[in-house]
């Protein structure tokens, strides 16, 4: 059940200012720097506000959406317009603990290999990790509770939250589900949606160290499942720029420039961004197929554009100079052993940037990542995409800042240092050494990066430096042999100049720094790539493009001094450039001198060891430095050494010694470093011996190896250092590589904990072995010794692993005979041992695990009942386990299965024999030869459907494997709820020399015998299920699709009632889901048995007679209750020996098993009663729940009325009015009026508020100065005011509503002795209004109330 997600961002941006927060420990920015950041934010805000306004206008004009959540889970949102005026859209790209292991992040955790305890919980990094994504993070998820601060009003719709919640959990998930534990599982996360990302990032940058951005700009071909009709592909290019390629891929535009500006203004802040999922266009529409030209008025085109199967698919801000752009790799099932173990995800976008810079920078694990889902607070989902790889990196590298702060008094690394450190220590990936445009600098290796910070072996250098105009830094280092000498410089480069030209190769590098290493003779330049030939391997040369340069000395010599030179070209922007310098493989010491004082007589004429076959000098010499000559060695290896002596003069006695600086401390004086000592030899003889390489050496070490031949009769006088008389000293190098032959036991796969010891059948004992060596191994002997709690050996099983490839694993299944009984409730020890005869490392050959058998099954309580005149016999088990019903005490027929079942009539024996959990069988075809053929693939989608009437366990199946990898099978309900799961490391059973394919699938191998794999998939209750499959590591599996028929495949009782059925496979094509019955998927010879441990003893059950029960419900009062009260429902039943189960809305109420139910919640309640006869359910009783009803408040002029019936109290401005407790109240002053009271007997509530304003005292009815008529009015009102001496001009006229709001104004005109006007009130609603006539000069106001009908 895997989806692929990533955020690609079209162009739609609404800028929202983020709030400023207080953080536990501030990042060291000066007031001036913070002011500059604030000014940059304002500039960006202004620019992007204008940009978005333009985009909004264009989108509306073209009737394009501003935001959409597509059916495939991708969130698409308008971001703005690009530099060419085209709309651009952001879009998202569609188990964490394994991810942490693959990138060695777990090495930094408590219990990890480095002895650290990092989780992101330190005060130094709290709240300094950010996320921008397509919606809100589900902050209430169990993995995230209390650790998310959402800084904007992001969408909290479930669909909007899925992607950000998955990403956030990969970053910081707590590990409630161990598989979902995030990289920095103790960190807190600052969250925003990406609507206004650039402005928000600028504002937040002084307070963040790392942020994650799993989204990008939509470019090239994009699939849009929401489009109706047959055309569902879109192309986001611009044919006026190029007819074939989308110019946005690799482009350095103004948006990209903004990201680099942010990085420069906040030099401790590193943005981590997904590279995108556009490689291969996820299938693209196909040649000649229609698609929509998004930037050309959405016209339809069939012209074939670039299918994005080559290079250059990272759009715009994904190629910013100062960020980490992250590609996605598959999870390496067996860890990282060699570059080929890192397999790029087929969707991960390739670089380069248009100017040739190396993008992506690095890869993380982004395929089949298990993390949180937003559907519920405890939901999880498997997703794939660079969106998943990016948080693997961002969450991890926060721990590097945490570690650095711990060691450096709370200080932080600059972002350029952190970025350089990550790229400096990445695991090599790809077919050739050095960087490339697929993997960047390789796979994240957190352990190696942390070792550089810790520098416990003193072989690393991490230095933050500044290069001023014209300056040249020179640093001398001595190689240590702890790996090759590697140096890296990295800097935050000033923002470049945007371009809108297709594939503009003009470098965007502003300050061009240079790194060189000189060994006294040769100068080595950094790695470079050729963007015009992107497939070419990296070479060495002058890097004029990247703001990171890395130099590797392939044959660095321990003890030798090298000179690093850092300089720059041209004029530095700002007259200086901060940079980070990282060096590994340094910190060595010069080795002592060893030579004779005379070159007469004895010499070493030839040395043979490993691949070294070195002739000595033609004449005699004192010292021969053959440090450029080396051989590989392996831990535990036995290595023959032959030293042939010679002479330039007289024959002399000689003693030869061999030395190796195993601990690389610059001397040969430590224990075990004198490898061999000859007897006293003539200087024409040969010294032959076998060296034993210590098991303590590690892969990658470069060991100084010294031979000293001294003319002497006393071996004790021969030393590794110093001067001596005659003889010769020679130095060589030994390169430690992975062992050739090393197979070890790793785990007991089955039985699992709490297994059934007494099954009366052979028991499968499965063990896993791992090949740690570089050679494939065959016929590896394995033994499993089983001992009891008293260490008494019960048995030892033996077998042979037929084949296990280098760095791979294999599972061997042995059979424990049924006669070897393992007692219930006892603990047993399983000791697994590999016995490879050529094994070089015995320390990993054995592993010991304990298992405790399950307790003995509980007894059953069986009944068989004939109810009334019905011939049907009802069979019940009210005890433990699952009952199976037979017609004989031994053998016989299985009549029925289950704890509540029936048979149509009595068996001939007139009684039944019941047993517990004894069911087992094989369902489906025995092998693939049952059908006519099939193929192997790593992406079959259909899910086998299995139904069962009793709890079962799927024990094992025969699988036919095409390619090695991992397969995960999960039993799920139809709503996708996971029930149980197993992940298998599978190895090919198919002949690997057969490479023919059909439709991209490997053709059938008719000789493939398959292999039986333990599944142990538990189905704890009867029901209908699907078995889903997920692939990783390149695994492929066989399914039959020729001549398949016979569905459903079933295990039945003797009466034909199905117990277990397989009816086909669930197949989804587009929006259609169906059951596929023309193919058989995955599982052959599928073995199932009862879930719990068996109790094979059969119990005789003699039928009895009874009558079926009845039930009705009697409430003890009204079924309409108030909140907080309750009602008792009483059962009225007939029948004996009844059990009770209450239901609410057809769902059983847990614990409600008595004859009375106290109800406090609304719902439809029913009672089911049962005895040995079939259960009966009563008619339902509906209970309604009433809350305190809000009183109504109706204003009729100044008279207020309420519908409350008791506890009435009128309030003015929230204060109770004394004595105002009736259903009506007359208003005498302006204010806010409410009423509280009890309407329905369920408590007091308060009404909505009414505001009444008394503008002036109304005249008496006899006052005829102001006349308003007609009153009531329907259409027009005439207003007439008598002229008086005080009125020198017409007063103002207005009409107000009951709340004092003016709804109309008018002009009074002098008409003889009166001022008059006519107001049109026809459009006003019915109610009370006031005619107000006011004279500003005299400050007099006259008011008349009218009623509008």
From TrEMBL:
GO terms for biological process: proteolysis. The keyword ATP-binding does not apply. CDD domains: Peptidases_S8_Kp43_protease. Keywords: Hydrolase, Protease, Serine protease. Residues 1109-1184 form the Ig-like domain. The active site is at 133 (charge relay system), 163 (charge relay system), 387 (charge relay system). The keyword NAD does not apply. GO terms for molecular function: serine-type endopeptidase activity. Transmembrane segments: none annotated. Signal peptide: none annotated. PANTHER family: CELL WALL-ASSOCIATED PROTEASE, SUBTILISIN-RELATED. Belongs to the peptidase S8 family. This is S8 family serine peptidase. It comes from Spirosoma foliorum. The lineage of its organism: Bacteria, Pseudomonadati, Bacteroidota, Cytophagia, Cytophagales.
